[in-house]
Automatic annotation (TrEMBL):
UniProt-listed Pfam families: BORCS8 (PF10167)
GO cellular component: BORC complex; lysosomal membrane
Domain of life: Eukaryota
Entry protein name: BLOC-1-related complex subunit 8 isoform X3
Gene expressing this chain: borcs8
Keyword field contains Nucleotide-binding: no
Record's subcellular location: Lysosome membrane
Origin species: Austrofundulus limnaeus (Annual killifish)
Length: 128
């Protein structure tokens, strides 16, 4: 009988210990979780801050590249304007040479006379 009482006491003691462990296990788990969060949160916050900074820098670089691409496209579209400017410059040089040649012939004439100003094709007419 003593052995049976001892066995019941041991069984009862083990059952009590198991209940104690089971009852306290959730709080131990929550404590470990809290400890983990407390240790890892500052590092996670730093990573988040770094990522936000890198995102801002990336957005700035993307904007710069897009702006440069649009500038290059505008330059390729401006070839028509440069051709027009080239033609106008050639006409201006030709007109200047004609004026110089006609003034050179006049200076070789008998008496030089002041010539009236030649109106520019794009200038407004003189007001009287």
């Amino acid at each position: 009988m003593l052995a049976a009482k001892l066995m019941i006491f041991t069984l009862s003691d083990k059952f009590t210990e198991s209940m104690y462990v089971l009852a306290n296990e959730p709080s131990v788990a929550l404590y470990r979780l809290q400890e983990h969060v407390r240790r890892s949160l500052p590092e996670l916050v730093q990573h988040k801050t770094d990522m936000q900074s890198w995102e801002e820098q990336s957005q700035g670089a993307i904007y710069s590249v897009e702006y440069a691409c649009s500038a290059v496209k505008s330059m390729t579209n401006s070839s028509l304007y440069f051709k027009n400017i080239d033609g106008l410059l050639r006409r201006a040089i030709s007109m200047k040479e004609q004026i110089s040649n006609s003034q050179g012939r006049r200076s070789h004439d008998v008496t030089p006379s002041p010539s009236p100003p030649i109106p520019s094709p794009h200038a407004p007419p003189p007001s009287s």
